[in-house]
């Protein structure tokens, strides 16, 4: 497993087409622009003329409703439509890809086998699973490349996805389900933890506003400490848990109510749903 983080794209020599310009696409091309990619190197497509106009105005990039024109002008095509729209779009654009064009798909639950069925055996494809903190360039994304991808294709995919956070290569496509359980759905778990901490703080007498500020900053600070520290999270936890102290009482309650088993069950359920959705999509 290798990973990389945000990088300088001012000399990135390729044109990138985004098929779909919604939440995920705009997060990624927003990241590319902040990392120095020239606006004229990005073409986004949308279904409606209104979205097309809005994308052009908000980001200063090229935008069109013609997927064919965008693909013909691009070295790399990033598929950012909803999973249910992908089969039709993938089949339709396949004849319009430039020779050796890399296709990157962010669609949840669509596997490489389905993509190659729709786009041709020889298409280099990188499948990825990003998450919503990509919107502020704090994303975590798992990547898997098919055998048709050269090292250059992989480097290009990594440059694009690492413009919105960390990008981690997976050796097995099936690991996408675990990535879904850890990082793609993970922000929702942390939001739930935040909700619970804020409510408990209010119950103990803090105002909603104060409890919210303290809880959010605590999650941010703990994450930043975990990233920068030489110690792993278990050791960091031990270092704030003095024997006989206050934190220990809270940790004892979490452990006695089996918080680890709850997370394990929750993440198994998430990964199982990811497998079910992938199976349903591959039967398409
Ligand atoms: N959002 C996330 O957190 C997240 C995380 C991981 C993966 N993903 C994946 O990201 C993909 C996109 O999700 P999203 O949340 O960004 O969706 P979204 O905001 O609904 O955006 C969809 C975009 O696709 C465009 N579109 C629809 N049909 C099209 C067509 N035939 N040709 C070209 N463009 C078309 C839409 O254009 P109009 O505006 O004109 O309708 C819109 O710009 C999904 O496959 C999802 O699984 C999302």
TrEMBL record:
Q: Which InterPro entries match?
A: 6-PGluconate_DH-like_C_sf, NAD(P)-bd_dom_sf, P5C_Rdtase_cat_N, P5CR-like_CS, P5CR_dimer, Pyrroline-COOH_reductase
Instruction: Give yes or no: UniProt keyword Cell inner membrane.
Output: no
Q: In which pathway does it act?
A: Amino-acid biosynthesis; L-proline biosynthesis; L-proline from L-glutamate 5-semialdehyde: step 1/1
Domain Pyrroline-5-carboxylate reductase dimerisation as annotated: residue spans: 173-277
State the reactions this protein catalyses: L-proline + NADP(+) = (S)-1-pyrroline-5-carboxylate + NADPH + 2 H(+); L-proline + NAD(+) = (S)-1-pyrroline-5-carboxylate + NADH + 2 H(+)
SUPFAM superfamilies recorded for this chain? Answer: 6-phosphogluconate dehydrogenase C-terminal domain-like, NAD(P)-binding Rossmann-fold domains
Q: Report the enzyme's class at the first EC level.
A: oxidoreductase
Tell me the domain of life.
Bacteria
| Chief location bin | cytoplasm
Question: What are the subcellular locations of this protein?
Answer: Cytoplasm
Q: Which UniProt keywords apply?
A: Amino-acid biosynthesis, Cytoplasm, NADP, Oxidoreductase, Proline biosynthesis
Domain called Pyrroline-5-carboxylate reductase catalytic N-terminal: residue spans: 15-109
| Pfam families membership | F420_oxidored, P5CR_dimer
Q: What is its EC number?
A: 1.5.1.2
Q: Which family does it belong to?
A: Belongs to the pyrroline-5-carboxylate reductase family.
What NCBIfam families does this protein's entry cite? proC
Q: What's this protein's function?
A: Catalyzes the reduction of 1-pyrroline-5-carboxylate (PCA) to L-proline.
Q: What is this protein called?
A: Pyrroline-5-carboxylate reductase
Q: Which organism is it from?
A: Sessilibacter corallicola
- Gene name, please? proC
């Amino acid at each position: 497993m290798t990973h990389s983080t945000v990088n300088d794209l001012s000399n990135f020599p390729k044109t990138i087409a985004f098929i779909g310009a919604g939440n995920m696409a705009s997060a990624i091309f927003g990241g590319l622009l902040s990392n120095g990619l020239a606006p004229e190197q990005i073409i986004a497509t949308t279904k409606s003329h209104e979205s097309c106009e809005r994308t052009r105005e908000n980001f200063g990039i090229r935008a069109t409703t013609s997927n064919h024109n965008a693909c013909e002008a691009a070295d790399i095509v990033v598929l950012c439509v909803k999973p249910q729209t992908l089969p039709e779009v993938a089949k339709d654009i396949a004849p319009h890809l430039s020779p050796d064009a890399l296709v990157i798909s962010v669609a949840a639950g669509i596997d490489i086998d389905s993509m190659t069925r729709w786009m041709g055996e020889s298409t280099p494809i990188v499948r990825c699973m990003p998450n919503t903190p990509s919107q502020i360039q704090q994303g975590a994304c798992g990547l898997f490349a098919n055998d048709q991808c050269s090292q250059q294709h992989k480097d290009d995919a990594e440059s694009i996805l690492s413009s919105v956070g960390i990008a981690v290569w997976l050796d097995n496509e099936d690991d996408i389900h675990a990535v879904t359980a850890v990082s793609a759905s993970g922000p929702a778990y942390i939001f739930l933890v935040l909700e619970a901490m804020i409510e408990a703080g209010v119950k103990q007498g803090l105002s909603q506003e104060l409890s919210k500020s303290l809880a959010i900053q605590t999650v941010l600070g703990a994450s930043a400490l975990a990233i920068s520290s030489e110690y792993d999270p278990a050791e960091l936890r031990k270092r704030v848990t003095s024997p006989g102290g206050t934190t220990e009482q809270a940790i004892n309650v979490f452990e006695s109510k089996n918080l680890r088993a709850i997370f394990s069950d929750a993440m198994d359920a998430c990964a199982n749903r990811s497998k079910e959705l992938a199976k349903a999509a591959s039967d398409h």
